[in-house]
Specification:
335 residues; Phosphorylase Kinase, domain 1; 2 domains; five-stranded antiparallel β-sheet; 9 strands; globular
């Protein structure tokens, strides 16, 4: 074993998941920009190990506390009690190395939703199930002082979401800078429900019994509208990636939106929808000019999305249905 693998083995030993003399195989998986992920074959079973990185793998200088790993563990455990079967079980944690072990899901039975969308495998019902599950977790945590205290991860959320996605972009677009900063401040001050913070198709597995949510290292008590906008934004961007599939992606957008709003019990759904509609173009712009731009759009498409996002920011339609109608015309113009 190399030093990295020995560290993983020692952590698993400390978690009582394996003995020091047991044979095991450790393979690094693609962990994205914020973490290292490993598939570990133990005697009799396979587990997944995730370790948070203090400096994220992007071109910009983007740093965040690696201690966020413990916040992710806490979110997974709480979400498992609210929506059983929709998150991986936590098997052990090693805070000294900012890593934890969880159940491993075989990719043939649990494909990543992003991969399915990219391949044109559009399942509108599944999108609705995603919305229902997110709303369920938000509803169960809304107005709970104990959850707010346990997930008071404001500095972490600033470093991982508000700064790279909104404030960083505000520095590059003076004409909407005040609006972007106001949106960031609104999310930062909200104390409504527990946010996952990274509800993205790349972090959702399409399991046989519905969605399985991963990567909750940005979990924070705040505005649930952020989670809804964050996920819907990816469906809008997929329309530009594959404009010939716009109708299917927007049907998924509508199903997710409707299922989510049907589960909003803690405030008038219209109020949450209005905040989501305001955040949506800001997050779209962030995936073009923020610290974590989407990798699948060429320069021409990026320029077009930037212009459309700026226009929506300056002329907010006020509802998600109106955003979708306008986006449909825009996306089909890319064919």
């Amino acid at each position: 074993m190399n030093a990295e693998q020995e560290e993983i083995r020692d952590a698993l030993v400390a978690m009582n998941l394996v003995g020091m003399q047991d044979d095991l195989r450790i393979d690094r998986l693609s962990g994205g920009v914020s973490c290292d992920v490993y598939r570990v074959e133990l005697p009799g079973r396979t587990v997944c190990v995730k370790r948070a990185l203090p400096k994220l793998r992007v071109k910009a200088d983007w740093r965040a506390p690696a201690e966020r790993s413990s916040s992710e563990v806490a979110w997974l455990k709480l979400a498992a009690s609210i929506a059983p079967g929709h998150v991986p079980a936590v098997l052990g944690e090693n805070r000294a190395h900012n890593l934890f072990a969880m159940a491993f899901f075989p990719p043939d039975a649990y494909p990543v939703w992003k991969a399915r969308l990219a391949a044109g495998d559009i399942d509108v019902k599944f999108a609705g199930d995603v919305g229902t599950t997110i709303a369920c977790i938000h509803a169960a945590t809304a107005g709970r002082a104990d959850v707010a205290q346990a997930f008071a991860n404001d500095a972490q959320f600033l470093a991982l979401r508000l700064d790279p996605f909104l404030l960083y972009v505000a520095e590059r677009h003076a004409d909407v800078a005040a609006q972007l900063r106001a949106l960031a401040e609104g999310v930062a001050k909200a104390r409504i429900a527990l946010m996952h913070g990274d509800v993205s198709p790349k972090n959702i597995l399409a399991g046989p019994n519905g969605p399985v949510f991963l990567d909750a290292e940005t979990a924070c008590y705040g505005d649930p509208a952020f989670d809804l906008a964050f996920c819907l934004n990816h469906l809008l961007l997929k329309c530009i990636w594959h404009p010939e599939r716009t109708d299917g992606y927007l049907q998924s957008f509508a199903a997710l939106k409707s299922a989510y709003l049907a589960g909003v019990t803690w405030e008038p759904p219209q109020a949450l929808e209005e905040r989501t509609a305001g955040l949506l173009p800001a997050l779209t712009l962030a995936r073009i000019d923020g610290k974590s731009p989407v990798e699948y759009l060429d320069d021409r498409k990026r320029d077009r999305v930037r212009a459309e996002a700026l226009s929506l920011l300056k002329n907010n339609p006020g509802s998600l249905d109106r955003v979708a109608v306008r986006w449909k015309t825009f996306a089909k113009g890319m064919i």
